[in-house]
Amino acid sequence: MGSIEEPNFCQKNKDLDYDVLIIGAGLSGIYSLYRMRQLGLRTKVLEAGGGVGGTWYWNRYPGARFDSESYSYNFSFSQEVLDEWNWSEHFASQPETLRYCEFVCDKFDLRRDMQFDTRVTAAHFQDDTKSWLVTDENGQKYTSRFVVTCIGILNNYTLPNIPGVLDYKGEAFHTARWPAEQVDFTNKRVAVIGTGATAIQVIQEVSKTVGHLTVFQRTPNWSLPLRNAPLTTEEMDKIRSRYPEIFRKCAESWHCFMHVPDKRSTFDLSPEDREAFWEELYAQRGFAKWMSNFGDINTSKEANALFSEFVANKIRGRVHDPVTAEILIPKCHGFGTKRVPMETRYFEAYNQPNVRLVDVKSNPIECVTESGIRTKDEAFEFDMIVYATGFDAVTGSFTAIDFRGVDGVKLKDRWSEGPRTFLGLFVESFPNMMMVMGPHQMFGNIPRSVEYAASWVARFIEFCRDRGITFAGATRQSVLDWTEHVHTCAVGLLANDVDSWMTGVNKNLAHKQKRIIARYQGPAPGYRKRAEEVVTREYRDLAERFLVQDEWGKEQFSLDGLPGAWIPYGGGGFMCTGRHFAKQEILGSVAIFQSYYKLEMVDRPKGWLPRPDRRFYGVGAMPPAEPIPFRIRRRRRGI
Ligand SMILES: Cc1cc2nc3c(=O)[nH]c(=O)nc-3n(C[C@H](O)[C@H](O)[C@H](O)COP(=O)(O)OP(=O)(O)OC[C@H]3O[C@@H](n4cnc5c(N)ncnc54)[C@H](O)[C@@H]3O)c2cc1C
Ligand SMILES: NC(=O)c1ccc[n+]([C@@H]2O[C@H](COP(=O)([O-])OP(=O)(O)OC[C@H]3O[C@@H](n4cnc5c(N)ncnc54)[C@H](OP(=O)(O)O)[C@@H]3O)[C@@H](O)[C@H]2O)c1
Questions:
Q1: Any ligand 2 atom below 6 A from CB of 199
Q2: Are 221 and 338 spatial neighbours (Cβ–Cβ below 8 Å)?
Q3: CB of 390 sitting under 6 A from ligand 2
Q4: DSSP-assigned beta bridge partners for residue 433
């Protein structure tokens, strides 16, 4: 429990191993550690992998690369890094991106505070010490005041729920756990299951050297040419001089990409002009074709159908066999309703005699056998099976850890009906825990969101450090309000009518069959505006809002002078009773509350003594049998 008189945050953590424990050493963990260093806090990163990079450490499959422009993906926080790092391609490959992550870590000597090969299995909030107890898979324990999760939205991979997957005796790989050693495809009969963004990259690459490739497709995807190209030193220098403009564009854009959206409607143009505009877009690099398109292709079924047909015709023009072309054209979802995979000669791969497409919808896979795959109609023999079957996305990394908050509440129970968060950063009953790239944050071009979220968290921890606040978390009301806002932002977007990892569906997982709102889908500038307002209000949303609903409506009380009765509640929260409150409510974030208000005891219950070491009566003490009447007084600002 923080106290105003004793602001030495680190001193209060002296019995704990760390001030801040970060889980994960991908981009989120790297930047979070950098910021914690700047605050002078004792910080440790625990990482399951053998090195830094997260996504770029694990996904070493052939063809893995960005769909974000390399120079809009990289960190913006260090001018030195921007000056020193050169990208060799507009859309860098996985090995180069991994080298970039390592370069940043070396530059700031970050590995010194990182512990690899350490998978966290449990994180339990300790009500008595207001701290976290984190356990790794070897049983090693770590205590920390704050936990910052940087565990990724696309990290926990899933194998297909096809019988016999473990019976197969040949080489088998999931793309997200690809070995570091070179894998050879020459003269081999290779199967790829899946046709998402990962599979598309694998297929177009493997088809260059494979003996024979069979692709098992359940759902086709709208895929567009990436138009990657090498970058010369001169081009890179020009890009470097444009970094401020690139990051400004990303900051202004809805999804944090550098592409400027077209404000017109699809129907503002004649069919001829529209076609000409789409041809221009189609010729551009990367996501321009999606992000610089008319916004209504994301909201209007009619507009979406027109652009989908434009893309379908491109596919028909590239795939020689019309039957194969039609199987490759999505019929059940419109363009852009799932994250659009970018490709380079993907469709042309199907023109090769040694590449075959199997439509799993009409010819379902029955099982994986010891030597291959059996479908309803055919038995296939393979030397290698590649599973490009996706992830237990967004919430998977969280449910893989036994997270328990105040009073032992389980995170998976808190989120049983889908994620409920405040700003995608906090979860009710999980004080002192913040999520970088948690659910309900902005996704899109992810490093822009990572930098913002990690910076928000750092500023908040700095606020706590400076005031000696050692207990802080979201209130129920703030979580309800934010979750409602996230759901409101999702209304009307066609993407929410489609099963995908972005709507929380993974057909291989029994508990992920229902669509949820997993991400913030309003404009990124709108997200940041709201998050900045919380900062401007000096985080009072984390303390005050929960106090201000009465039982007759939603009237807001001024707290000053309000009588009430407060009962210390396990975990540092408080329950509030009294005529102004509909029912007993658990109040989180008392420490922040306390920096704005003080409680004056009205009648001291018999035998009840304030603890001399604590300004806030009763905290940490056994709850008294009777509520203690208090009067709430506003403190002067600035204390
Ligand atoms: C193949 C692929 C390509 C992508 N391309 C792009 C792109 O072009 N543009 C874009 O914006 N985004 C892209 N993404 C999304 C990508 O995940 C993010 O851009 C970014 O790398 C996320 O960084 P992160 O640190 O938040 O998460 P991650 O990179 O996923 O890192 C999370 C880390 O946490 C660790 N971890 C998780 N659980 C535990 C645990 N229990 N104990 C210890 N450690 C744990 C993991 O091992 C991992 O290292 C891509 C994703 C994939 C899979
Ligand atoms: N930068 C890039 O270019 C890039 C590259 C790779 C990944 N990513 C990111 O990572 C995300 C995830 O991509 P991903 O391709 O790894 O996963 P994904 O989009 O979830 O695709 C998984 C694929 O596997 C198929 N599949 C899963 N289980 C199956 C089963 N039992 N039987 C048959 N098919 C099955 C799916 O079919 P259904 O659709 O029918 O379920 C789908 O085609 C992307 O959306 C993107 O954000 C980016």
A1: yes
A2: yes
A3: yes
A4: 147
